[in-house]
Amino acid sequence: MKVAVIGGGTMGSGIAQVAATSGCQVKLFDLNNEALIKSKISLEKVLDRLIEKQKIDAAEKNRIQNNISYVNTLNDLSDSDLVIEAIVENLEVKRKVFSELETLVSENTILASNTSSLSITSIAASCQKPERVIGIHFFNPAPLMQLVEVVPAIQTSEEVLNKTVQTISDWKKVVAVAKDTPGFIVNRVARPFYSESLRILEEGFADMATIDWSLKEMGGFKMGPFELMDFIGHDVNYVVTETVFTAFYFDPRYKPSLTQKRLVEAGYLGRKSGRGFYDYN
Ligand code: NAD
Fold this sequence. Notes:
Oligomer: single chain
Structural class: alpha/beta
CATH architecture of the largest domain: 3-Layer(aba) Sandwich
CATH superfamily of the largest domain: NAD(P)-binding Rossmann-like Domain
Keywords: Oxidoreductase
CATH topology of the largest domain: Rossmann fold
Domain 3-hydroxyacyl-CoA dehydrogenase C-terminal: 183-280
CATH class of the largest domain: Alpha Beta
Order of helices and strands: EHEHHEEHEHEEHEHHHHH
Organism: Flavobacterium ponti
Shape: globular
Protein name: 3-hydroxyacyl-CoA dehydrogenase NAD-binding domain-containing protein
Domain 3-hydroxyacyl-CoA dehydrogenase NAD binding: 2-181
Strand content: 5-15%
Bound molecules: nicotinamide-adenine-dinucleotide
Helix content: 40-55%
Largest sheet: 8 strands, mixed
Radius of gyration: 19 Å
Number of helices: 11
Number of strands: 8
């Protein structure tokens, strides 16, 4: 199967690794060449770590690496069977990419978005053939997280939904089919995890290390909310909250936090920029 991934950042790189590991021929495209170089270097490191842990051998590493090519234009993706978009979380930018993409690929190519919270129906409406558009929402880090939400738009055909569920299952992921509502299932349920933690911090009732520690020790979470927001990236996480808040007609349950907004404005995006709630330098 020929798979294209658009956006070679955190998610696109992980999704490319998942597809390549399952034997697909993957083309990874990013507007920014540096992102592609970074993605290639990071894959090398990830695979070396898997060799150290004796989870794969050198031949498997080569096979996965050889299954991915790094390309600089959308045109290079024209022979794909499935395209997964993982670019910036902005509806207008995604709609533009999808409408352009549709003119390049074959009629039968499935066009998927990895959006965390935007309307798949609205992205599909930017295409002439909206029935082939669908949401495939991986979690971070994509190679490790088992769950993938598959989200049909209201225009998506049954055939495209079935093929997508089959493909993602073939990639050894567990599929949850979710309705096209803001944040789908997991990102909607996760909003209060972040927002109540931010409120406790803002109200001065506990510091972030204590909140993180409590949720890990007592709540059984793998990461505390502040560690997780730093891991996801505040630019990504804040926009998701803003989208869910706006899409639910400004329901105060989903109100975004000014503390997080200021981090985004400062460029303190979390681990990827070296500083977020915590300092990683
Ligand atoms: P990121 O910032 O790490 O990567 C985005 C990449 O897209 C960048 O390399 C950028 O250069 C590239 N890009 C931007 N516009 C482009 C365009 N028009 N064409 C080609 N490349 C373009 O972002 P990310 O964290 O990987 O998130 C990507 C998508 O996945 C978003 O929709 C986000 O909501 C979703 N998502 C993120 C997470 C997460 O934890 N970070 C989890 C699940 C889903």
